[in-house]
Amino acid sequence: MCRRAVPTAASDIRLDNRPSSRSRAATHLLFVLALGGPALSSTTPAYAVCAIAQYGEPKYPAKFQHFDYVNPAAPRDGTLVLANPNRLTSFDKFNPFTLRGNPAPGLGLLFESLTTGSADEVASAYCLLADDIDVAKDGLSTTFHINPKARFSNGDPVTAADVKFSLDTLKSPQALPQFAVYFAQIARAVVLDRLTIRFDFKVATREMPLLVGGIPVFSRKWGMRADGTRIPFDQLAFEKPIASGEYLIDRYDNGRTIRYLRNPDYWGKSLPVRVGTHNFARIDYKLYADTVSQLEGFKAGEYDVLVEHTAQSWVRRDVGKRFDSGELIKREFMHHNGAGMQGFFINLRRPLFQDVRVRKALDLAFDFEWLNRQLFYNQYKRTDSYFVNTDLQATGTPGAGELAILDPLRGQLDPAVFGPMPRQPDTDPPGSLRANLLEARALLAQAGWTYRDGALRNASGQPFVFELLGDSGGDVSMEPVAAAYARNLQKLGITMRFRTADFALIQRRIDAFDFDMTTVRLPDVQVPGTEQLSRFGSRYADEPGSDNIAGVKSPAIDRILRLVLGAQTREQLLDATHALDRVLMHGYYVIPHWYSAVHRIAYRNTLAYPARVPLYFAADEWVLSVWWRQSPPPSP
Description:
The chain is an alpha+beta fold. Helix content is 25%, strand content 19%. α8 (356-364) runs antiparallel to α11 (433-446). The two termini are 41 Å apart. It holds the Pfam family SBP_bac_5.
């Protein structure tokens, strides 16, 4: 599943499975909870179905009643009040698909796609706007028939022409550049009749039917003036979207609050994929200026759910009389999501960082074990893979399948790639920070950096100085992490300056690649696909706004990426992804951080959730989609 990279907000924030700000639009709205790709095989007959799975068969049979992880009898009333779902403290538009400006939170409630996914499976797609899916036998096209009951919020029927318009708009220069990447292999969308559309592909991959099934659909009338002229898509601001989702924008104020109201005429309430979901009649967002006021607002009862990403806050700050009385409840929910990659991303576009020995030395100076003990209450594990917590993670030495991929690239790869996977530096005994720094000093010397005149200098006498760009959103927990890292680097003669800025400014600087090092999270994927091309493909390294944050340019990686995208079996996908992970980790493009296999959620006791917790879920989206309000609250 494609997800947009996002700058992290604080040191031990693990941004669960959701991107922030406009990245939420480029990903959550792109797939609207779709969690994988469909089946494609030369032996698969061409026939129309309403559910497809990337490998094997969908879990839920035809005519199923509802997903297992919902409560079909949940009350459908009440108001859910939420705070900032990301680091943005205000919004200035309702269009989540464009680069300029900050979108309002919750816009994913407005948009739907042809298919949606199941949180019980890593790779499935079930009919939503569509009521029929026909994957061509050769895998080069997929045809969808649109449910004739599907309606936009203005009452107009959803048509094939609207779907084509949505795709063409999102692929245009007026939309976020990520869409052009995600949809690059779609050759065309062909309207066959009013309710039937066929997508033709440039290549046959198992991912393509999911990609087109996940296109967010909106009406051609969105942005149309009364005189028939159209507002350019990238200039749409507070023009309310005309889409098919279950909620409407009710009211908003000063870019700080917004209310969504369930559409009483919502067309899809009886669909199996909608039964037991979206149980709140109203959803309010209140945006706080910083995390301190946000936490105090939760304790004061100003909103209902706090998804906690900071270990220190969970242990020491998320306490008080309302927690003691049972009015506020804290729970940790186990999930099976991949952890993604969060870390200090190094900008290879800077000459300072182009030597891999320098990047490895910077990694050796990072003391995770000390941070975990002193700051994080031992709640985290060290990230040692781009696909950690999944079977996509490379381990040990390359197996036969990996070697078949890597051997033809041997002349382009570091010989170390053919040995064991890199182990992240460890300072627990018998390891030590001193030993790691000595190894780092030796690597730096090999790269031409030696200590003299009070600093680490190159042959020209220039000191080793760089900036770590961080967020100033109010949670100061990044500062002790940066300070500890800077102290370790100073022992090598390296000066690291920690620079804070507003979240929106950080996003703009990252989009322009105007940074030395910054904290970013590449959200997890359960089935790697086109998002890997955007993150690591050479052609996107210099494209402003792309997800290739580090500026990776490697013909060998480009070749492996093509094999990931073209995998026709689960085994092929695993081999290609293991090879990709191995090469990326040996490139030391990131100083990895940490991860947790639980979601930490604090909530009011007037809320309830189904007895069965899904396998793969983002905490805030899970609350929005299947929780409900109970009244009166249960007795303590």
